[in-house]
Amino acid sequence: MALEGTLKDFSPFDIMELIDFKQKTGLLFVTAPEGETITLGFEKKGLVLAQSSTKKNDLQLGNILVRAGKITEANRDKALEMQKGTLDRLGFIFAREKYCTEKDICESLRIQIKRVFFTLLRWSEGIYIFEPRESIDYFHEFIKPVFVQPLSVKGLMMEGALMIDEWPMVEKVVKSLDMVFRRLPVKQEIKTLTEEEAFDFEGSATKNDTAIHLTPDEKILYDLIDGRQSVSSILEKTLFSEFTCCKIIFDLVKKDLLEENKESPLEVNPPSKKDAASGDVLSDEIVRKNWEAARVLVQRALPEALILEITLSEKKATLLQGETDLEQWPDLIMAIYQEAKPLGNRSDVGVFEYVADEVGIALFWDHRTDYMLVVVSALNGSIGASRFRAHVATVTRCVIV
């Protein structure tokens, strides 16, 4: 079947509907006027491959695995260096070097396929050509076929059609990925729905509840909104696609939970030093005493860890345990915070975690003041990443109630 032409004459929907109807096996190449090329691989049962020539982060397999916490940035970069010399597929290198499991790779490939597919659906200009093939080499002997399940083209097209219908509405609120949003004060309690409750269309679980209810995905994004990070920066920290991220922000704005922060992120007023319940101004000394239990827990659990107190507004660090050059930490900690993963949040306390190859860092930030408790632990044989996370979770339960 010879199939080639321009998207002005034959839309992406039309092309993929025809390929799926004919149940053809082959590769579809589509090139935009700007030069980006998207490649889709089809088999009779569905879509098995999707790649983009762009370096856009949310479309790259390595970045998807990093965001999912399946590989480290260091291992991703090592694999990219290896790829330059061998031209092996990145997934093959990840599996060969045992950076992650075969299942992790295939789950991330499915995310990549959907994102690339939905990106193509929005294109209105470009040229395309479909090349029939006997088979598509979309996995190697290192990935068991049981993990590789073709995606339904019809299902993806239905999901994509809904996305395209909603994009114009979403873009009226999220006009650019450079925008910064901040939380609005709310009087009601904010509750996170379970997966079952989120799909309870009759609303029986929340019928008599006056709280504001967020889906699990909404809560993840809501916790990341801090009035400083752009939408693009937040997108880097999640597994959400660009559309999903923007749609959630749109929904949170409509729920009066967020608004655009039109101030410069560097000029955002620091959190007020007031107790959420009484409104009384808090001194740094009172805050430190309130955190005493958390400090004791950390010191007992991780006796060899570096533990600091940081007063962010004054760029002042105080050493509680270990040895370090204190002057570097106030600036360094904000860089770490930008890369850290939120573990829990409420109106007055946030917990963030950063785990790299050989170090684990936990940030316990009291939003009522500019006080932060910082725990830095070397990850080695006795203290691995899982044990470090377990200790952080214990302290989190102490400060997030």
UniProtKB/TrEMBL annotation:
InterPro entries assigned: PatA-like_N, T2SS_E_N_sf
Stated name of the protein: PatA-like N-terminal domain-containing protein
Limits of the PatA-like N-terminal domain: 4-167
Stored SUPFAM superfamilies: EspE N-terminal domain-like (SSF160246)
Residue ranges the record marks as coiled coil: none
